[in-house]
Design brief:
Number of strands of chain A: 9
Helix content of chain A: 10-25%
Number of helices of chain B: 4
Strand content of chain B: over 45%
Strand content of chain A: 15-25%
Shape of chain B: globular
CATH topology of chain B: Beta-galactosidase, Chain A, domain 5
Shape of chain A: globular
Number of helices of chain A: 3
CATH class of chain B: Mainly Beta
Distance between the termini of chain B: 18 Å
Structural class of chain A: alpha+beta
Order of helices and strands of chain B: HHEEEEEHEEEEEEEEEEEEEEEHEE
Order of helices and strands of chain A: EHEEEEHHEEEE
Largest sheet of chain A: 4 strands, antiparallel
Bound molecules: copper (II) ion
Largest sheet of chain B: 10 strands, antiparallel
Distance between the termini of chain A: 32 Å
Strand order of the largest sheet of chain B: 6-7-8-9-10-22-19-18-15-16
Structural class of chain B: mainly beta
CATH architecture of chain B: Distorted Sandwich
CATH topology of the largest domain in chain A: Nuclear Transport Factor 2, Chain: A
CATH architecture of the largest domain in chain A: Roll
Helix content of chain B: under 10%
Oligomer: heterodimer
Radius of gyration of chain A: 24 Å
Number of domains of chain B: 1
């Protein structure tokens, strides 16, 4: 049961169509780089084309959007991580043991969250990926760095009270806990009233999850921050807004609370 | 007639000497910064070339790295920025009802980053791989936009002034978080200025209605008071001027001396070195610059970029959102201004990063807050509202990089 409700990606269908800003006249564009360039890799500081005369204005039409071809196995320099680099990094990071770690469902092994390209200023440094996990046993965020050249895990860093955005799996679990809890009664009644239908499945909702960290003065879920907690922004597809931003699901403590 | 102090031959010599002291990224460095899909390299109509690498981070959204500028008379691009990202976006409501951290609790990348339709983008759209790696979604818009009059000077006849229309290279992505759609924008001008902005559009949050002292009535009559709120944003900017890095930070203040000259009050400008990590605030006539101790322009002046802040509402309810600008020693794991999420670093906010280290490689954290009092016009869709700052070149080139050839002899007081 990976995605029992409409995924966040499906929110896109009603998130489009926004004109982008103070529309000024777009000019003809002379593309000399990017995917339309013929040389495989333009080198900054390298063979830059002779600058055009300041008086001459290029008359080309804007180039068509370049097509992103199949992802290469590995990137160059500051390229984004390719899907296969991510696969290798994630596999290597998970293969290294992390004693006692459990995921959001209580199963062995930490919960995978996200990845990033490791920042570096070293000109010829190998590309490295950082893979982030959450260990629900220790309530700690884990970062593992993987050298993409050697495949070796080079570093493991853990810290408490770090709460990155929830994964889809974590949001799914939080929804499940919420719907099984008495605090969802009001929501179900509001849904019935707004749509005339009974709420029987998370499929009836578009849900975005966000991590909740209690500020010192917050009340209702003050363990959150130390614990991993999720709040929801919900939308009934093509329907009304039912506000449940006061609900907090504590995934570490397996409890549901209402902020006061 | 203007004074002509240089012969045409001398002017040509000056042009060919235009690149002084090539830095590692100017001449020697053959490192391939990124492949073609990640490279933006564009010459603007006035001959200025900007190039950089872009990618999308799941939390910070659009990431720009290795940003370099080449004026029409420069032989090679000269590095300006090592990287720039948004580093937090707090959205607290005046009612105290909610506070969102849109970067560290949601993120601007991943599913939150919107695919761009042709109507979203007047230029070229670039894609990122999604899912298994063979599906792409177009998320980056790259366009060249008119910027109006870049400079104007009376010429020899009224019909022929020295006048130039400028243009900007504009990069944009759009991230939808909740009901808001945020535009991450970088505007690279042909004169070397970099404008960094966040635009907010989409829709106001539904149901977030409150009392008259915390909102504004946007429906019929005096009933629906849409809640006032902040968009308090941080950016993290790491310079790499001339490819050398290791910049110095200077604060400049100008104050009246209390004395008078022949016709007016005398003001004095003084420099304070920001040699150790510091959280700083604006004051009348105060400004900061990040200056290379190595890379010089053709006048022998050290290259720098100046921070220019405009409209800015500080959110004083948190100590960490109070400083207007913070300079910290570079650490790759200090990624977010607040709620840092890299376990490799002990500190989680700019206040903890600022712990007395000497600045030998400064990172600049810029906070720009926008207090949003909704108005009738915000429905619907909401017109874009903008917040951001400018990075202005100061002595990056010895003269106006767009100057016409016959003004190159004007450099200094005109007495040789
Ligand atoms: Cu707003």
């Amino acid at each position: 049961m990976e995605h029992p409700w409409k995924s966040r990606a499906q929110r896109l269908r009603w998130g489009l169509g926004v004109a982008s800003c103070t529309a000024v006249v777009a000019l003809a564009v002379a593309w000399i780089g990017g995917a339309t360039a013929s040389t495989p890799h333009q080198v900054p500081g390298g063979e830059a084309a002779a600058p055009a005369s300041a008086e001459a204005e290029p008359a080309q039409e804007p180039a068509a959007d370049p097509t992103l071809g199949p992802a290469p196995a590995a990137g160059t320099g500051r390229d984004p991580l390719t899907p296969s680099e991510l696969d290798r990094a994630r596999t290597a990071a998970l293969a290294a043991p992390l004693a006692g770690a459990t995921d959001v469902n209580g199963a062995a092994g930490p919960e995978y969250l996200s990845f990033e390209l490791v920042e570096t200023k070293e000109a010829n440094a190998p590309r490295r990926a950082a893979v982030y996990f959450y260990d629900y046993t220790a309530d700690k965020l884990v970062k593992r760095t993987v050298n993409l050249k050697t495949g070796a895990v080079e570093g493991t860093f853990t810290a408490a009270k770090r709460q990155p955005p929830p994964s889809d799996r974590e949001v799914a679990k939080a929804v499940e806990l919420f719907l099984a809890d008495g605090l969802s009664t009001d929501f179900k009644a509001a849904y019935q009233k707004a749509t005339g239908k009974a709420f029987t499945s998370p499929d009836q909702l578009e849900i975005t999850g966000t991590t909740y960290v209690a500020r010192p003065a917050d009340t209702g879920a003050d363990k959150c921050g130390e614990h991993r907690c999720v709040q929801f922004i919900t939308r009934v597809p093509d329907g009304p807004f039912i506000d449940i931003t006061d609900i907090v699901v504590d995934l570490s403590g397996r409890t549901v609370a209402r902020l006061r | 007639m203007r004074r002509k102090l240089w012969s045409a031959a001398a002017a040509a010599l000056l042009v060919s000497a235009g690149i002084a002291v090539p830095g590692p990224a100017e001449a020697n460095d053959r490192w391939e910064y990124c492949g073609n899909d990640a490279l933006v390299k564009q010459e603007l109509k006035n001959g200025t070339l900007w190039q950089m690498c872009w990618r999308v981070d799941v939390k910070t959204g659009l990431v720009l790295e290795k940003v370099a500028f080449k004026g029409k008379r420069d032989k090679l691009p000269i590095m300006v920025l090592d990287s720039s990202t948004i580093a937090q976006l707090n959205v607290p409501y005046d009612s105290g009802f909610n506070e969102w951290n849109d970067i560290t609790s949601y993120g601007f990348g991943g599913d939150f980053m919107q695919p761009l339709a042709a109507s979203d983008c007047k230029g070229q759209r670039r894609g990122v791989w999604t899912g298994a790696g063979q599906d792409a979604k177009k998320v980056l818009c790259i366009s060249e936009e008119e910027a109006g009059l870049a400079h104007r000077l009376e010429g020899e006849t009224p019909e022929k002034p020295y006048a130039k229309m400028g243009s900007d290279l504009v990069l944009q992505t759009i991230s939808k978080v909740g009901w808001y759609e945020y535009i991450t924008e970088y505007r690279f001008a042909d004169d070397g200025q970099i404008s960094v902005r966040l635009g907010a559009t989409g829709d106001l949050a539904p149901r977030d209605y409150t009392t008259p002292d915390q909102g504004w009535p946007i429906g019929p009559g005096q009933t629906d008071y849409s809640v006032n709120h902040y968009h308090s944003a941080f950016w993290r900017v790491d310079f790499n001027i001339g490819g050398y890095g290791t910049e110095k930070v200077e604060q400049y203040d100008t104050a009246p001396t209390g004395e008078r000259g022949r016709r007016a009050a005398i003001y004095s400008t003084s420099k304070t070195d920001v040699a150790t990590e510091a959280t700083l605030n604006t004051a009348t006539r105060r400004w900061w610059r990040v200056v290379s101790p190595t890379s010089k322009n053709a006048d022998g002046h050290f290259r720098s970029y100046e921070l220019e802040l405009g409209a800015n509402d500080p959110y004083e309810a948190h100590p960490e959102t109070q400083p207007d600008v913070t300079f910290t020693q570079y650490k790759p794991c200090e990624k977010f201004a607040t709620f840092n999420q890299d376990p490799e670093c002990a500190g989680t906010t700019i206040l903890e990063y600022t712990n007395g280290e000497r600045l030998s490689d400064p990172v600049m954290w810029v906070r720009v807050g926008f207090h949003h009092v909704p108005r009738d016009e915000d429905q619907s869709p909401m017109p874009v509202h903008w917040q951001g700052f400018d990075l202005v070149p100061r002595d990056f080139t010895a003269q106006n990089p767009l100057a016409p050839a016959d003004r190159l002899d004007v450099n200094g007081d005109g007495v040789s």
